[in-house]
Structures are given as C-alpha cells and as structure tokens.
Specification:
Layout lengths: L1 H19 L18 H36 L11 H15 L5 H24 L6 H25 L3 H8 L16 H11 L1 H7 L3 H6 L4 H22 L6 H13 L3 H25 L8 H21 L5
Helix pairs in contact: 1-12, 2-7, 2-8, 2-10, 2-11, 2-12, 3-4, 3-5, 3-6, 3-10, 4-10, 7-10, 11-12, 12-13
C-alpha cells in the first residue's frame, strides 16, 4: 500500500515540477514552450529554472527526512531541526565562517556550519536527557527557547560586527537567488540521505529506547550520533545554500507518519516526496501571489507550518497519540 502512495506522490510531484518550470519572470518561457524549447528558452531553463527546481526538491526532501530521523531517534514528534537549535546553530556557524574566512569558498563555510550544527544538536540532546518531564510540548518549548538563545547570540555578534543584514539571507529561505553554479552543494544531501536510508531500521529501533536497542545488539550511542550527523549535515547544507525553512521538518514527517506509521525505512521515501512537494507548492504560490514579484518560501511555509504546529499541540493536549 505504501508503494502505491509513493508512486502516486512521485507522479504528482513530476507533474508539479513540469508546471513549475513554466513559471518565472521571463514570460516568454511558459508551460507551452517547454517541449521542445528553443536555444534561448533552453538557456533560461538551464541557467535559472532547472537549478531552482532541483534546489527546491532537494531542500524540501532533505529537511523533511532530517525531521523524520530526528523525531524517531528522540522518540518525540515535536522535535525537528527548527525546534532543537540545529538551524540556529548552523546560522551561527555561517556567521563565524563569514567573519573569519570571508574570502573562502562556500564549501569551507558549509563545513563550519555543519560542525556548529552538530555541536548545537548535541547540546540539545544532552539537555533532553536531563529533562524529567519529556512530554512533547515541554520538549518543543525547551528546543524553541534553546534556539532562541542561539539566535540571540548570533544577532548580538552580527550587530557588533555590522553584519545584521546578512542574517535575513540565512534565516529566510528563498530560492530567488538560485542559479546555475550556486545550488550544486545541495547534492551532498542526496548522499547523506542514502546513509540515512541505510540506517533507517536502526533509527526505528533506538527510538524504542536504549535498553531495547542494546538487547537487540545495537550500539545505541553510535547509531544515535550517526543520526545526529545525518540530520545536522542536511540542515546545515540547506541553510547555507537557500536559508532556513521553518517547521518543514516538523509538519511533513508528522503528517506522513500519522497516516502510514512510524517505521522510518518504510515512510522515508514518501516523506522525502511529500517534503519536496510541499516546498514546491509554497514556491509556486510565492512566485504567483504578487507576480512579477515573489514571496520567500520561508514566509509561506512558516505560516502553514505554524497552523499545523498549533493543531498538533491541540491534538496532543486532547490525549491523542501524537
């Protein structure tokens, strides 16, 4: 049954991707002009629209998968890169890299962001282990406050160095600046996603508790840190290339697992497709709502995500299994 859902989602995403290629400021290239395109039309597609589409699909899929893995290894549906300080730690890393290595390549900045994202997520996990009441809402509030502290530190440092204007770029996910040559680092998330898929069954097991995983012969700490690295790399790469997209890693995995269950390996492909489709839909709305101008994807995703987050909290408060 899940395979049917995956094929349906893939078909819908394929159609949506084709239609998305026909939307842009260059009105001379519409949906009817995509097949077959002329030389000039192909130049626009190859330079701008195809890179943008690829960035949308990879960013949406990777953040959703990162949220799924994080929720499973912490056994808490309210944990995601945007509610655990992972994204904020990555932004702090980009700021540090920009301050210290302003003339270096994007790859170096990305590596520093990955390191700070891993460190920030490890701190959150340590905090999580010391919380006595680990209800979903409590953990989410702790994560949001922790992320707020990291964001405040980042803003303070940026203000001292007159770099506040850069924060909007890193904290507001947008694909308007994606062109050929600027999105390629996102392919890293495909490799990391494969690693996440290979360890998916182990993530499911450790989500059942340390004693349960140990009895089955798994090294709980090692699998936990592998999951942490996978999540941190995905989140940091996306933040560096396109900026932060709030609540994406929270709402998409929750909706998918509520419908299809908690087995990471079985729901991971559909989660990736659903995340890619959600970001694609937000991007299309952002490009058409005030055409020829556009709204950032983060604005639309944040609005929808906030509503779904409140719904999940209310559902949990009513005693449902969230």
């Amino acid at each position: 049954m899940r395979a049917v859902h995956v094929w349906i989602a893939a078909g819908v995403l394929l159609v949506g991707s084709y239609l998305s290629l026909g939307i842009g400021a260059a009105s001379s290239v519409g949906v009817a002009d995509l097949f077959p395109p002329t030389a000039d039309e192909w130049h626009i597609l190859a330079t701008s629209r195809i890179p943008r589409l690829m960035a949308i699909l990879m960013a949406g899929a990777s953040l959703s998968v990162a949220g799924l893995i994080m929720q499973r290894i912490t056994a808490n549906r309210f944990v995601s890169p945007s509610t655990s300080g992972t994204v904020e730690a990555a932004v702090l890393g980009i700021l540090i890299a920009t301050m210290l290595f302003s003339s270096t390549s994007l790859v170096v900045k990305m590596l520093i962001a990955i390191v700070t994202a891993i460190a920030g997520t490890m701190v959150f996990l340590q905090m999580l282990q010391r919380i006595q009441h680990r209800e979903g809402i409590v953990v989410a509030l702790v994560g949001l406050m922790y992320g707020g502290v990291l964001a405040a530190i980042t803003t303070f440092v940026a203000y001292q160095r007159d770099m506040v204007q850069y924060l909007d770029i890193w904290t507001t996910g947008s694909f308007s600046g994606i062109l050929e040559g600027r999105y390629e680092p996102l392919y890293i998330v495909l490799l990391v996603g494969v690693i996440g898929y290979l360890f998916a069954d182990r993530f499911t097991v450790i989500g059942m508790g340390e004693s349960f995983a140990t009895n089955l012969g798994l090294n709980y700490q090692r699998i936990l840190y592998i999951g942490l690295v996978v999540v941190s790399v995905m989140a940091a790469v996306v933040v560096v290339v396109v900026g932060a997209i709030p609540f994406l890693g929270l709402i998409v995995p929750n909706v998918v697992t509520l419908l299809l269950g908690d087995n990471v390996k079985k729901v991971l492909p559909l989660t990736a497709l659903a995340g890619a489709g959600f970001v694609l839909a937000c991007d299309v709305v952002g490009r058409t709502a005030i055409y020829p101008y556009e709204l950032p994807v983060a604005t639309i995703a944040g609005g929808i995500g906030g509503v779904v987050f409140i719904w999940l909290i209310m559902r949990s408060a009513k005693g449902a299994s969230v």
